[in-house]
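Ticket reopened. Same input as before:
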Amino acid sequence: MSNIWSRWPARIVVGILAGSFFLFIGVPLVALLLREPPALLWATMQQPEVRQALELSFLTTSISTFLTVLFGLPVAFVLARMQFRGRSLLETLVTLPIVFPPVVAGVALLLTFGRFGLVGRYLLPLGITIPFTTLAVIMAQMFVSSPFFINTAKAGLEQLDKRYEQAAYTLRASPFYTFRRVVLPLIRPALLSGIGLAWARALGELGATITFAGSFPGVTQTMPVAVYIAAESDLDTAVALSVVLLAVSFGLLLALRLGRERLVG
Amino acid sequence: MRHSQRALLLFILLCTLFLAACGSTTTSTTSTVTPTPSPSPNTLNVFAAASLTGSFTAIAAKYQQAHPNVVIKLNFAGSQILEQQIANGAAADVFASADLANMTKVSDAGLVGVSQVFAKNRLTVITPASNPGHINTLHDLANKGVKVDIAAPTVPAGKYSLQVLAKMALSPQYGPAYVKAVKANFVSLETDVKAVVTKVQLGEVDAGYVYVTDAAAAKDKVTMIPIPDIYNVIAQYPIAVTKGSTHASDAQAFMQYIFSKDGQDVLQQYGFIAINP
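Engineering reply: fixed in the latest deploy. New output:
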């Protein structure tokens, strides 16, 4: 490996391929930044509706990511550690939301939790309606973003050497104690990167949210929905909103990454 | 072994350069080839508002039958999205907008020729056929707890819906208290009028403001509660040939067909108000 790496053609080819990819991702971002003068960006950020959408996005993605971890970690554990019939079927099932066109995911959620949905019709007599509520936003985000966390956490668990756990068991540690004090710290990098991916996907969620939760300022209108609606009348506002959203996401993703590096290094 | 690796890497490098070269040549050839006439059928790119989906699909099918030398490609989206696509250089031959505002924008930018109104539309309130909110008159929309859906104010349909409510606020029969109560029942501001229809059809909302044409397209699943003409807003649909059209005469002929009796009949079947020449 080091043999090939020391040779100049390899360096040049890798450099060109990687460099052109960074440009492919980076230049469109710069194009967005260059389109609007900084004064407009600042003015956009000061608007109360933008602050409201940003706050709602922050709140809903925080809750949906927390719930994804709460429910997703046991799922990842079951899929990584237990052998049973139908396991590959379940593995495929939890990955499926990545392939769903988000609008279809939204319709599926409506047909399940809507007023006349398979589950929703039994909730209605109890006075519970989910569509058009902030809860619906959180559910839509969980639905589309959970595969990113589950798959990363599962990969971390699969790569973990089982002998660490066995060593803990020989010292009479309980399964729960072993999981909390041995397994979790060892797979923390995988968990953090899974959390980062799931959170980022939830933050950009548009299609399922619009379909299942609708769009109402302060209740269900998250940043991506606000961007989409703004783009219909005024592209400049939409671009300014996108830049704000991207800046916030970039900062948070970078913070997660740095936190992870500190843990690993 | 080492030689083969190096050869492979150089091969990849050459491929990349070759592809890059290909990309630039194809773009330059297409721009020189398109203006020359060809024996193959002419493709007309028709950009039409989302509310024209049914009627324009039918009109295009009829037109192509009568004119085998023309292939019509339809691009449906919200008028404001089409306006932006055309402003950013999309290859449109004909633009049919659901409002005058978006046509004025492309016209002011010098992107289209003279535009003409070819159809009119108006708003209605629809409820799911099962009518879960017990909405029988427009007055019922103000009842507490009713879920009302509407397009966002940035979408033409949403703008017109708010204009209807503004007219009702001024009338003695409804008044500002009514409008305030209806607005408090809004559960969502949808990104396009079709999303309102979807949510009414699924029964997730009790009522929604849509075009009469949308209600006609979904008539098995929704019930219409007409909005009287004195409060209603008449939406005007203008059409124009783009200045960048590479088949301007074909585009002009298609536009004339829409104004012909055949074209207007189809529009009427889909619930539009025809234009009397």
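Chain B touches chain A at residues 5-6, 9-10, 12-13, 16, 78, 80-81, 84, 132, 147, 149, 152, 154-155, 186-191, 195, 198-199, 202-204 (CB under 8 Å). The first helix of chain B runs from residue 2 to 33. Please confirm and we'll close it.
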